[in-house]
Amino acid sequence: MAVHETIDDGIAILTMDNPPVSALNVTDAYFIAEKIRSYSNQEDDIKVVLIRSSGNGFCAGVDIKEMQELPENEGILKANHSCYELFDAIHSSKTPVIAVVNGHCLGTGIGIAGSADVIIAAEDATFGLPEVDNGALGAASHLMRLVPSQKARWMLYTCETATSQELFNYGSVLEVVESEKLEEASLAAAKKIAEKNGTLIRAAKASLDGIEETNLSKRYRFEQGYTFEMNLMGIGDQARDAFLDK
Question: Residue 1's pLDDT is what?
């Protein structure tokens, strides 16, 4: 298991640990989803959740090598289903979730950060959706919670990234700090939430989730339909093989 859990003083910390690039495999995606859903039943013990990475970058996306090693459509189906469960678990969590982003935040990383309630990022953090280059589509729904619509379209079409400072200027990143201060800043933010009345915080989160204009999970599921279509056409496999050949 490449995800480590610690719980201290009402704060659950899930640390992704999968060097060298912090790609997230199917098993670990399901594990994080299950953990977050379990916290919903621990109102007195878990007040806030932190998701972070110990490696080189926050998350490089799904494990494409794992995907291509599985037979026929099994890889893409497992990756898509595990990502759906992960993002939905974060966004629908009864407990506030903070994404702590260092280095690259790509693909699945965008889904995690875009599903979270709060983002704290390092100065060197970059955000992007290289899905077109990897023969897939998805998480633009989550990207549109981080950057304006036209910026999101440009990032999806070109696979270009945005900096943490850009997202701070858009208002989607709460704080940008030096890399060595990222843990301190994220814990300080978590403690501010954990100090509040837990029942009221959960009610506040439920109220905010309820007034969002459209359902995030349904939007993401719609995107995934195009990934399946590209895979059936063979375009997805060609793009992923070309990526691995690099």
Answer: 61
Instruction: State residue 240's pLDDT score.
Output: 78
Q: Is residue 129 part of a domain?
A: yes
In a domain, 238, yes or no: no
C-alpha atoms less than 13 angstroms from C-alpha of 98 in its C-beta half-sphere:
25
Domain count within the chain? 1
Contact 5, 42 (CB under 8 A): no
In a domain, 24, yes or no: yes
Per-residue tokens: 94: 């009864």
pLDDT digits (tens, 9 = 90+) for 90-149: 999 999 999 999 999 999 999 999 999 999 999 999 999 999 988 888 899 999 999 999
CATH of the domain at 163: 3.90.226.10
Range of the domain at 70: 3-178
Mean pLDDT of 171-195: 97
What is the predicted pLDDT for the residue at 71? 84
Which residues lie below 8 Å from residue 221, measured CB to CB, with a gap of 6+?
Answer: 84
| Domain annotation covers residue 236 | no
